Amino acid sequence: MPPKKTQHSKVNKGSSENASSEAEGFIKQKKEESESIGAKKRDKPPTKTSQPSAKRQKQEPRQGSRSSTRQSKDPAPSPKQILNFLLSADALQYCYPEDELESSGKTYSKTSPTSFSPFEHLVTASILSKPLSHRLGMRTIRTVFNEPFAFNTADKVADVGEHRVWEAMEAARTQHRQKTASYIFQIGDTVKNGGGEGKWFEGLKKAEGEVKFKEMVKKMKGMGETAADVFSRRVQSNEGWDGVFPFADRKAAEALEEFGVDVPNGEELWATLKEEVTWDKVGDMGLGSNVLKLSTATKQKIALVVVLERALGAKQEGNLDAVLKQSHK
Questions:
Q1: Tens of pLDDT, residues 115-155
Q2: pTM assigned to the model
Q3: Is residue 125 within 8 Å of 234, Cβ to Cβ?
Q4: In degrees to the nearest 10, what's the CA dihedral of 252, 254, 260, 265?
């Protein structure tokens, strides 16, 4: 025999049904109120603030993109104007982070590439080949080459050991610290035990042609294609490295092309610089008065490196349009 239903359970069932009915009624009422309000809103003409603005309807081109340049009302500056501006001290603020420009000592942006040794160029190339932001890359280079670390020679790096190099990465607050420290230490150790900087780099100088040169660089632990490109680009300004000169890596040349200077290789860029740059106007290029004491040939080599790196830097900083605008002045 089934259990007899009590009055209590019946009351609970009734309460549940009442509650359900009340909930449905409440939902229905709110729905009707919402529809009523919506109808009233549709009856009214759209206000000024409710209408989509022209700015929101038309997406503005991203800063630093080619499309933003094409849509500019001003005529595009000539390659001569662009090159002269990029090589001037005024261009620095558009090409590098503020903390980089405010720093003293040896820096990537304000120190002539001729003042970096081949070993320092090698370490710089290793750092910049890592997936770091522009700001972090500059800060890591500053930290490595200035006190209290000053890892400016292969002997110094090899002698202090990998842990001390890692401490420099910690101080730089950079990314990929362990891997970067390991590569920098191995570069120093390899060069030191390969006969020292003199012997090791002399062997590299003798490499015939860009391809062979870069293949030799890539034999170093942590030096891939990007690092070989950065090293080749920078070391060509140093005395005695004519074998790699004139060189323009693809990434930097493409950045320069976005500014309207179409030079697919180092040879064409070199010829364009000699023809278009007003050397008295660019002066020391923002690299210090010592540059003015150098021979014209050396200054021109420096300019080849600087214009590539500033075009790349301005692109990374998102200042393509700003540079084009300033080039008109």
A1: 999 999 999 999 999 999 999 999 999 999 999 999 999 99
A2: 0.77
A3: yes
A4: 80
